[in-house]
Amino acid sequence: MPMSRRHLILGSAAAGSLASLGTPGAAAGQTASGPAAAGGASLRHRADAKGLLFGTAVGPLLDRDRAYRDAVVADCNAVVPEYEMKWKEVAPAPGFYDFAASDRRFAFARDHGMEFRGHTLVWNDGMPDWFANHATRLNVEEMLAAHIGTVVGRYAGRVHSWDVVNEPLDLSGNGEGGWRRGTLLTLMGQEYVAASFRIAAALDPRARLVLNEFGTLQAGPEAEAKRTAVLRLLERLKAAGVPVHAFGIQGHIATAGRDAIDEAAVARFCAELAGMGLEVMLTELDVSDQFAPADVPARDAAVADAYRRVLSVVLDCPATTAVLTWGLSDRNTWLAEHRARADGLPVRPLLYDTEMRRKPAWDAVAAALDAAAPRPRRAG
Ligand code: XIL
User: Fold this and answer.
1) Which of 90, 326, 338 has the most ligand 1 atoms within 8 A of CB, as the residue to mutate?
2) What average pLDDT does the segment 293-321 reach?
3) Which residues pair with 279 in a beta bridge?
4) Which is the most buried residue in 43, 225, 263, 299, by most CB within 10 A?
5) Which atom of ligand 1 is the closest one to the Cα of 167?
6) Cα(284) to centroid of ligand 1, in Å?
7) Average pLDDT over residues 318-336
8) How far is the CA of 57 from the centre of ligand 1 (A)?
9) Are 230 and 192 in contact (CB under 8 A)?
């Protein structure tokens, strides 16, 4: 993404105004716990300076929360809809599409000179209820092509990247030969993955096409098996000439416990992905504090440390081009439900607290972007 005059202005203005006015919503220089370490420049400014994408998942909060919106505008050069672009959201009934919400997110990105990531075209957990009743072996490929055609076609040429297929693998034992069960797998077999990429590439040859998965950053045999299965799948897709350009590491990690990261394994994994000529994107980064101390300064420090560790290893890989968090503020995080704390305390997994004050996690991301090697500008 070329450093447009607008970015330069925004960057310097953001740096200037933020420095003079403090960060959006934050009392001057204050953060949730202690002085602002990383100074005034926004995360967007720092990412732009390295040719990296930094952004976050967005949704309806953008429409009704000015402080949150200002923070997204200040800190992000990319956004992705958290759920408003999923199949069941845009096609609540057969043959009927409602793009009002995803159009709003797309317009927000365009209006703020940001890249837009599409999430997600094909995801077993995101399929509309009506699909299983309507799809048959005879019409399923047509239905898949029609859906991808409608969604990708609508934004063609203006999207940075698509999570074409999300979470196809399931090594938990509930899967089918290591694959997540679902109507597409039942009716098309594993071929639904290759078919989805080919259809998307034909409709938008400019977009980066991404295979997105979770559970590839952690320690232990389960994560190791997941990394291996992902690499094998990508090798098969590449060998078959399937247009897959990047692997999306979701990045839902924790400060401790089974979702803590294994930096050495992640470094190896990223090197393998780079070796295949793939881009690496951290697509849904957040740090669960489920097992962190109740004390807020200690908890925020543990969360910040996890951001520092994952970003230092993933950004160390030259193939990494993008980092997106799954929300920016503790005001709005799926982890409040999915990784609630046993003590009932509100979770604090993101970069801003519920008062929209920067947290040490914000500083950790700022420092990681500053420490990252510059990436070559993306052509076109
Ligand atoms: C989650 C959203 O955060 C929730 O708001 C929604 O109810 C369910 O989906 N992996 C993904 C994301 O790829 O799309 C999921 O997002 C979180 C896990």
Assistant:
1) 326
2) 98
3) 246
4) 43
5) 13
6) 9
7) 98
8) 10
9) no
Q: Which of 58, 67, 74 is nearest to 26 (CA)?
A: 67
Q: How far apart are CA 284 and CA 205, in angstroms?
A: 24
The whole-number pLDDT of residue 7 equals 42
In this predicted structure, what is the pLDDT of residue 39?
60
- Cα 250 to middle of ligand 1, angstroms: 10
pLDDT in tens, 124-146: 999 999 999 999 999 999 999 99
Distance 329 CA to ligand 1 centre (A): 16
pLDDT band at residue 8 under the 50/70/90 scheme: very low
Question: How far, in Å, from the CA of 19 to the mean position of ligand 1?
Answer: 34
In tens, the pLDDT along 344-370 reads: 999 999 999 999 999 999 999 999 999
Residues 196-219: tens digit of each pLDDT: 999 999 999 999 999 999 999 999
Residue 178 has pLDDT above 80, yes or no: yes
Buried b (16+ CB within 10 A) or exposed e, 7-45: beebbeebbeebeeebbbbbeeeebbbeebebebbbbbb
The whole model's pTM is what?
0.91
Residue 280 tokens read as: 């690496």
Phi/psi at 123 (5° precision): -150, 125
Using the atom order of ligand 1, give the atom closest to the CA of residue 214. 10
Residue 153, judged by CB atoms within 10 A of its CB (0-12, 13-18, 19+), counts as exposed
